[in-house]
Design brief:
By secondary structure, the chain is α+β, with helices and mostly antiparallel strands. It has one domain. The chain is built from 10 helices and 4 strands.
């Protein structure tokens, strides 16, 4: 049994998660049409990825969740690229997308013994957060934890989806939607029960985190996100699947993790997990 099997992405879900390639394609198409931005072969490093260096911010403060906290937003320059791209992205958020997010119900944000809170220090850096998030997400003992606990933990670490005009009440649901409606590391409820009965556990190791080249290209083309902490990281590593009575199985995993300013605390949070691949 493929233990990471997920439901196929519907067109509605794909439209609601306009993250990596759609952003880049829109930006490149717009800049090509308008004659703006550097060529696609430009090798300049994204400055947006490090826009809030640890040495110059207050992000190392307590990571306790607070309903009064609001992530930082900026107003990018009103360039032709910015206007056109944002209009194109907004068009993807139609009524079906809003209905999908509005009807989705997930556990309230919470940590637990199986899924602990991410340390405040790990929330001050995109790469540190991506590593800590992935370790907590994929180090799972299915017999001693529940899917609801995992989704509650994910909700505690979410960052709002900030593309287009998605209502704030729905923007924080995108992470859990991405974890439950497509190819994802989160097993279905039925699969979780099967893994729990077999006392299967997962352990992740050898993580490598790097900025997605498509994201760098989008920023180099002249588009800027309203969330100054937003970045798309490529994450890869090894997942060891252990089941009593069987030899451990080691799989190579990879995915794209979109980060941004967290919803409930200072520092980074996760917007969505996409392109989950197991080899």
């Amino acid at each position: 049994m493929r233990y990471v099997r997920g439901l196929p992405y519907s067109k509605v879900v794909a439209a609601s998660l306009v993250l990596v390639f759609d952003v880049v394609l829109v930006v490149v198409a717009v800049t090509t049409f308008l004659g703006a931005g550097p060529s696609p072969t430009a090798t300049s490093t994204s400055t947006r990825h490090g826009i809030v260096p640890v040495t110059t911010t207050k992000l190392a403060s307590s990571r306790a969740s607070s309903p009064e906290y609001h992530p930082l937003r900026v107003a990018p320059p009103e360039t032709a690229v910015e206007r056109t791209v944002n209009q194109a992205l907004s068009q993807n958020l139609g009524s079906k997308v809003l209905d999908l997010l509005g009807s989705s119900v997930f556990p309230a944000p919470a940590t637990s013994a199986p899924f602990r809170g991410i340390e405040a220090a790990d929330s001050t850096s995109a790469s540190l957060f991506a590593t800590a998030f992935t370790q907590e997400l994929l180090d799972v003992d299915f017999a001693t934890s529940s899917r609801q606990q995992l989704l509650a933990w994910a909700n505690d670490n979410n960052a709002p989806f900030s593309f287009g005009d998605l209502p704030s009440a729905l923007s924080t649901r995108v992470l859990c939607v991405s974890l439950t409606t497509g190819p994802s590391p989160v097993p279905s409820a039925t699969e979780w029960n099967v893994l729990a009965k077999s006392r299967t556990s997962w352990s992740v190791s050898g993580l490598v985190v790097s900025v997605n080249p498509a994201w760098t290209q989008a920023l180099s083309a002249g588009w800027e996100p309203v969330d100054p902490l937003m970045v798309i990281d490529d994450v890869s590593g090894s997942l060891t699947v252990s089941t009593p009575g069987h030899e451990p199985v080691v799989e190579s995993i990879s995915f794209a993790l979109t980060l941004g300013g967290a919803s409930l605390h200072s520092g980074y949070g996760a917007v969505a997990l996409d392109d989950w691949t197991v080899n």
